[in-house]
Amino acid sequence: MNGEQPQQLVDHLFRHESGKMIAVLTRIFGIHNLQLVEDVVQETFVKALQVWKFNAVPGNPQAWLMRVAKNASIDLIRRQQKLNFVSDEVAAQLQADTTQTIEQFFLDTEIADSQLRLIFTCCHPALPPEDQVALTLKTVSGFGVAEIARALVSNEAAIQKRLYRARVYIKNRQIQFEIPAGKALYTRLQSVHTVLYLLFNEGYNSMKADELIRYDVCAEAMRLCRLLTTHAVAGVPASFALLSLMCLQASRFDSRINEDNEIILLQQQDRQKWNHELIQLGYQYLRKSSSGNRLSIYHIESAIAAEHCMAPAFEQTNWERLLQLYDMLLAQKPLPVVQLNRAVILAQLNRLPQAIDSILDIYGIHDLLKHHYMYSAVLGDLYSKGNNIPEARRHLQHAYELTSSLAEKKLLQHKLSQLPA
């Protein structure tokens, strides 16, 4: 059974294959039939679960899923018997042979092109940015509503409204399923980068209780980003910088968690376990991103990741250079999380009081401390280094109560146990 139970395998394949299938079927039926397409894909995975529970899982389950989806689309078209049911692109070709026409859209090159089309369609500038991101995460990457809510720091009801609003807008305005050209592409590309960045971050530091790193989510983000870099127009410097960042961050996966699912902090990580092939790929993509005259946030974040990778040991990290990079990043991306990370660098430079003050000066810090464990966790750590034990204990305990991650809870519990009585 490919070493997996049918339910586990179907869940895994839904993450990896549903976006491809939706992209291909959307190209066949048109973006106005997005809800129908999602239903067909959902039915395909339900059928897979039913069949595979009682029969052997096929040797190539991905091909099985694609074949079932293809046959379902052919049956739908034949039952409808009207060309306005499908996209304009397919309608012109259906006069010849339905099966042959549908078949061509399931070729690897067409699948990749269809996925790029779907990403750019979901990131249509007429949609509010938050709707673009939610729709892409749901449609292209198979995120559930709860996952999207976590990634966008929102609630499930709000995400449901965003998704419904986006689908209705696309259908009513007859949005075209296409990769735009010229200036229109660059308008959408920024949203596309944001989506892939958020997708990777959800995998890199997952909010799931029992899974700190979601390798499949990170791999999907990297695959989609690589698709961008191979496109004649979307392969801009920022796309290469984002892919570089993903490679450099992913290179540390094997050293971040031990056998007991406990977090290993950067200063304790075995750098021999870092994936040096991925590091070299990261450097290579960073070099490719150096053309042009615009410095994106992904250039800066990739440079930050590269500084960590270049340091032979934690103690030999160029903290002054990192502070310069965070100052540059903060100028372009004035978000609380950037200010928080900058404070950590200040502490490494023995500027502990300034580091604590800079966190307490973050706009909206009281609400952030109430709802997001990381701010309390960092403050607790900094107060511990400054021997302010009551404040350290208070913040670390609060962070422990806020996080749902078992690995994070273990780490925070360990830090609390190390505090003097």
Automatic annotation (TrEMBL):
Residues 119-167 form the RNA polymerase sigma factor 70 region 4 type domain. InterPro entries: DUF6596, RNA_pol_sigma-70_dom, RNA_pol_sigma70_ECF_CS, RNA_pol_sigma70_r2, RNA_pol_sigma70_r4_t2, RNA_pol_sigma_r2, RNA_pol_sigma_r3/r4-like, TPR-like_helical_dom_sf. Keywords: DNA-binding, Sigma factor, Transcription, Transcription regulation. Residues 13-82 form the RNA polymerase sigma-70 region domain. It comes from the Bacteria. Residues 188-289 form the DUF6596 domain. GO terms for molecular function: DNA binding; sigma factor activity. GO terms for biological process: DNA-templated transcription initiation. Belongs to the sigma-70 factor family. ECF subfamily. This is RNA polymerase sigma factor.
